[in-house]
């Protein structure tokens, strides 16, 4: 039986990120009455809590507004939380606003590195440096209300039960840019924080056909299969996925 979405568990559209010395706390601030998300800075483990922990003189947090949790990326020894820090509304689709990611930031959950070997620390530093590239990934789009991974025809053909599922459950995994990064959050059943993101382009414009003016929406979505650089990815694989760089 399909898991239906709880109407009270819509995606959070605005949150406050609290940076404590030992944990991150993501607090919904869009008027929702949902729980806060606590993330350990030791190992990246997650759990829901009722409220933000009390601040003290020795636990003074940094605070900033975020607009979505993209997911958690696990490297050799540490995990890294990736969030959306700035967004831009670029149009609408089926009456719902569509946003472009203007800025992202990752937050390390790597305190466990203290017990790692020098070689592991060195390798982790090299891997984590690549996250600076991820922060600058272009062409990322998302919606809090409508599925961008499906064409208009496939959206129309969705059954009533499917439309009640959380957005990430409706999504075509081939076009989910953050598919891998959401896995830990999916395992922890964090539906209100699970924001599907696609890479590609989004354009809204009007065009004239005879005497009629019509609204046109063009969405390009990059597939996450068979990705790689032009040097290493050529042709198609046995499943029909073509080189995608």
TrEMBL record:
<dbReference type="Pfam" id="PF02383">
    <property type="entry name" value="Syja_N"/>
</dbReference>
<feature type="domain" description="SAC">
    <location>
        <begin position="131"/>
        <end position="245"/>
    </location>
</feature>
<dbReference type="InterPro" id="IPR002013">
    <property type="entry name" value="SAC_dom"/>
</dbReference>
<protein>
    <submittedName>
        <fullName>Phosphoinositide phosphatase SAC7-like</fullName>
    </submittedName>
</protein>
<dbReference type="GO" id="GO:0016791">
    <property type="term" value="F:phosphatase activity"/>
</dbReference>
């Amino acid at each position: 039986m399909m898991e239906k979405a709880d109407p009270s568990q819509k995606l959070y559209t605005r949150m406050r990120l609290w940076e404590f010395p030992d944990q991150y706390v993501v607090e919904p601030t869009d008027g929702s009455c949902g729980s806060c998300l606590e993330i350990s800075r030791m190992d990246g483990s997650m759990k829901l809590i009722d409220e933000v922990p009390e601040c003290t003189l020795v636990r003074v947090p940094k605070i900033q507004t975020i607009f979505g949790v993209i997911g958690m990326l696990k490297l050799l020894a540490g995990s890294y939380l990736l969030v959306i820090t700035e967004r831009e509304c670029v149009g609408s689709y089926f009456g719902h606003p569509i946003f472009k990611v203007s800025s992202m930031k990752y937050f390390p959950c790597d305190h466990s590195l203290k017990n790692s070997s020098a070689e592991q620390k060195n390798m982790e530093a090299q891997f984590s440096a690549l996250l600076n590239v991820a922060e600058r990934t272009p062409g990322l789009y998302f919606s809090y209300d409508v599925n961008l991974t499906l064409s208009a025809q496939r959206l129309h053909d969705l059954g009533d039960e499917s439309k009640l599922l959380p957005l990430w459950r409706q999504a075509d995994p081939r076009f989910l840019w953050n598919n891998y990064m959401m896995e830990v959050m999916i395992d922890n059943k964090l539906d209100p924080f699970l924001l599907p993101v696609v890479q590609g382009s989004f354009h809204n414009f009007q065009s004239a056909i005879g005497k009629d003016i019509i609204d046109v929406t063009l969405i390009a979505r990059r597939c996450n299969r068979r990705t790689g650089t032009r040097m290493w990815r050529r042709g198609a694989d046995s499943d029909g996925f073509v080189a995608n760089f």
